Amino acid sequence: MKKIYYVLSLLLISLGAWTVMAAEDQCIACHTGLGDAPSTLFKKDIHQQKGVSCADCHGGDRTADDPDKAMSKDHGYKGVPKGNNIIKACINCHDNADKMKTFGSSLKTNQFKLFATSVHGGTSLDGAEWVAQCTTCHGAHGVSPVASPSSPVYPTNVIKTCSKCHSNPQYMKQYNPSLPVDQLEKYHTSMHGKLNAKGNTEVAECASCHGSHNIYKPSDARSTVYAIKLPATCSKCHSDAEKMKKYNIPTDQYEKYAGSVHGKALLEKHDVGAPACNDCHGNHGAMPPGIESISNVCGTCHALNADLFSSSPHKKAFDQRKYPECQTCHSNHAIVPATDALIGVSQGATCVKCHSPQESSKGYEAAKVMRHLLDTLSASEQSAAAIVEDALQKGMEVGEAKFKLRDVHQARLESRTMVHSFSVPKFQEVIDKGMKVSAEVSHEGQGALDEYRFRRYGLGVATGIITLLSLLVYLYIRRLEKK
Amino acid sequence: MQDPIQQSKRDFLKIFVGGGLFSLLGAIIYPIISYLKPPVQAEAEVKSVNAGKIASIALNSGQIVKFGAKPVILIRSPQGDLKAFSATCTHLSCTVQYKSDLGVIWCACHNGKYDLNGRNVSGPPPRPLDEYRVIVKGEDVLISKLA
Amino acid sequence: MKKIYDWFNERLQLEDLVHFLGKKYVPIHSHSVWYYFGGISVFLFIIQVSTGILLLLYYKAGEDQAFESILFIMSKVQFGWLIRSIHSWAANLFVLSAVIHMFSVYFEKAYRKPREMTWVTGMLMLFLLLGFGFSGYLLPWNELAFFATKVGTDIMGVIPVVGKPIMVLLRGGEEVTGATLTRFFGFHVAVLPGIFTVLISLHLIFVQRQGMSETEEFSNTPENEKGKMPFFPNFLLRDLLLWLLVLNILAILAVFFPWELGHKADAFASAPAGIRPEWYFMFMFQSLKLIPAKILFIDGELLGILSFGLAFALWLFVPFWDRKTAQGHRNRFLNYLGIFVIAFILLMTIYGWLS
């Protein structure tokens, strides 16, 4: 019995409150009668539900039933807020944590602060207002919480919302003529876009990577898609094993990448030229590169290697067997600096994965020869460098030899590139070039060392003169004192 | 009176001592004179080098100039401007060269490319090349470090 | 020859000088050999001045040039390696011969009246010599020199009241920097040589005025039994012979044991292992290391430094407090003290090298 009373009284109270509010807010009462769009939309608006009135944004007297009185300037009526006044109307509450609490909201109140520093917080064409206003993305009278599917910034909707401007070349070129407007189009081709189109709200959409209120240019170091920060941004989801489980893809890419030659260059040395996730996978059109296209992707930077590979016998062999090109030998995310150990037939060499002395022995032999040549050049370079250093420490002039040593180094690096031709004669040519210069350097260094030893002969002569002279002086003294 | 043999021996000795002292002097003075001769590279650290006559540098060409122990690439653009950069690639320290057909500074090791302002524009180089100052003094082209 | 001599003689009365030299005699006795170390020191001084001037032609003081310029001297300048090597080796031989000279004078009691001033100027020169060594060591601006200087000047800073200002004065700031290098360069090539030249002139004038000191034994032998040798040409020729010998040793050392350059100093690198001072500072360095940190409320290191200071002062003024020798008695105590000091220095130096 008690329970029924309780429920009844609650119902009564709420009904009462509704009637009181309805009775008090004349704006909505009157405008509903007019049947205009704003009032219709506003009924579904989160603000309306929380007790925000039209007058809170538009000004005027909500209690007056006379329209002239209600919408008179004397009563603070502002009409439709224009330009920055929109944001000012919103932040009246949204910038104020205390006010937000009175509506029972636990939303953050820093949106405007973030927005003001963002690219959209810049000045618009006429210079009088910010580029975007709250309403640009969130809508005006039918505002829903972000988590509500009816919100324009809901994951499946935000694509359209952003592209309203960003896919409009006419509009975009007013601000940044060089900024592409094909993001949406590319996005649709990406795995993210395809899943998003199917209603998946988990996959990355615009805001997942670019942020929402605090969107910066990708070249801005604060941006979440700034080269150095991008891998972390992608890994927010891609390193989350829980999230990735149902897509059946690995989650160790970031970890591997961070330890790779690229990851170290980017994340540790801050070389923004080093590739981040998007440089191989694309950004808006993110997809794993196809097996045949890997050498093209890597070849955007490693052009020589890619060219050599493409004209090598391996190209065909790899394609036939569906081996991913560069990746087969160098791996992908965990790519480490290539060492000479990669080639050859010893343990740890990659060639022996396919070539064995029994099958495809030609390749086996070639690998063996190439490794041997590489080792020879490397040893020759080291010994030449040691001779030069020795001579230098002995105070000999070996500037020329030291200078030439650079050419040996260069030939060795070139030979490492030339490996990708997988042709022994071509490889040998570069190695020979290096060996020749290395021999010259050794010769010059040795010459300097010989010169250093020759100094001792010079000293021998000087010491001889001095010793002889000493002897003569001694004899002279003897004679002198004998007298 | 002294023994004539003794006399002659003493003179003999005297001449030898004198001669010895002279050759000693020579052995001391020779290194000193050589030391005083200014060495080919006149200063401990190279501040500038002469890259040759301007007339001998063709348009749209590049050449490596030895700047102390480091190579510098001197480039004459098709328009005739002279520019000089460190010729050490910022990727793995190979020596770069000028590609006249592409109008870029090119590194043969990994196909790194720099534009004619030394900026890394393609390939693996992480940083631009350091620029050197080119001064044309009469006929001569001088390269010096930027202050 | 005769003509040239006459020409000069007419104007400068060289005869007087020759006459003076001809009448100068050097006593001959069992300890005569020690007389030569003074001459060797003078010879090494001349070598240091001439090679020093030669080095000055190419050396550049400065944090970013000192090391490079020495490298340049050694590899690009003809015979630069030889000049530098000789300068470094001669510096060490100079200290050695000066120390031997000093001890020989000490044990012969040659400092007694009337030669007190000769002793004092000699001792001051020995101190200056150590200053030369200390300042010259830093000039190549290599790693070892940098940290040795750091440690050496740190020790200076321990002395109460005056230590810190002296350290800052020496370093040209709180730390060993390029400013220290220019300062040390100034000391090494201008300040110290200036004072040294004055002292060596006085020292030599004193020796010429007063003649060679004779040992007590020698003084007591009857006049007609005293062995004497004319200074010119006999003694001078012997000097020449020794100089040639020293020159030979120097040349051999310079060529077979070229002075190494090491690696350029880096103020931010951690100190390399095996930082040790030049050998002639080793005994002090080692004793300071061995002194316990605290001795009766007094800082051990401070006590050590003060004791060394006191010892040097006592040593410097030995002619003034050695009453016994002055009265013509034998002062055995001083002989034992001298032997103790030599033993101490040798022991500490060897210990320092081994540890």
Secondary structure topology:
The complex is a heterotrimer of chains A (483), B (147) and C (355).
Chain A: H1 2-24, H2 26-34, H3 37-42, H4 46-49, H5 54-58, H6 67-70, H7 84-94, H8 97-102, H9 111-117, H10 134-138, H11 155-166, H12 169-172, H13 183-189, H14 191-197, H15 206-210, H16 230-238, H17 241-244, H18 253-259, H19 261-268, H20 277-281, H21 294-299, H22 303-310, H23 313-321, H24 325-330, H25 361-393, H26 399-418, H27 424-482
Helix pairs in contact in A: 13-14, 18-19, 25-26, 25-27, 26-27
Chain B: H1 4-36, E1 48-53, E2 61-67, E3 70-76, E4 82-86, E5 96-99, E6 104-107, E7 112-114, E8 120-122, E9 131-137, E10 140-145
Antiparallel strand pairs in B: 1-10, 2-3, 3-4, 4-9, 5-6, 6-7, 7-8, 9-10
Chain C: H1 2-12, H2 14-23, E1 25-28, H3 36-56, H4 66-75, H5 80-108, H6 116-138, H7 143-158, H8 163-171, H9 178-210, H10 216-220, E2 227-230, H11 231-256, H12 279-290, E3 294-295, E4 298-299, H13 300-316, H14 318-321, H15 323-326, H16 332-354
Antiparallel strand pairs in C: 1-2, 3-4
Helix pairs in contact in C: 3-5, 3-11, 4-5, 5-6, 5-11, 6-7, 6-9, 7-8, 12-13, 12-16
In short:
The complex is a heterotrimer of chains A (483), B (147) and C (355). Chain B is α+β, with helices and mostly antiparallel strands.
Question: Can you tell me about this structure?
Answer:
The complex is a heterotrimer of chains A (483), B (147) and C (355). Chain A has 483 residues and is mainly α. Chain A has helices at residues 2-24, 26-34, 37-42, 46-49, 54-58, 67-70, 84-94, 97-102, 111-117, 134-138, 155-166, 169-172, 183-189, 191-197, 206-210, 230-238, 241-244, 253-259, 261-268, 277-281, 294-299, 303-310, 313-321, 325-330, 361-393, 399-418, 424-482. In chain A, helix 18 (253-259) crosses helix 19 (261-268), helix 25 (361-393) packs parallel to helix 27 (424-482) and helix 26 (399-418) runs antiparallel to helix 27 (424-482). The longest helix of chain A is centred in the C-terminal third of the chain and has 59 residues, at 424-482. By secondary structure, chain B is of the alpha+beta class. Chain B has two domains: 1-41; 48-145, Rieske Iron-sulfur Protein, CATH 2.102.10. Helices cover 22% and strands 35% of the residues of chain B. Chain C has one domain (25-265, 274-354): Cytochrome Bc1 Complex, Chain C (Up-down Bundle), CATH 1.20.810. Chain C has helices at residues 2-12, 14-23, 36-56, 66-75, 80-108, 116-138, 143-158, 163-171, 178-210, 216-220, 231-256, 279-290, 300-316, 318-321, 323-326, 332-354, and strands spanning 25-28, 227-230, 294-295, 298-299. The radius of gyration of chain C is 23 Å and the shape is globular. The N and C termini of chain C lie far apart (60 Å). The model of chain C has no long low-confidence stretch (mean pLDDT 86). Chains in contact: A-B, A-C, B-C. At the B-C interface, helix 1 of B face helix 4 and helix 5 of C.
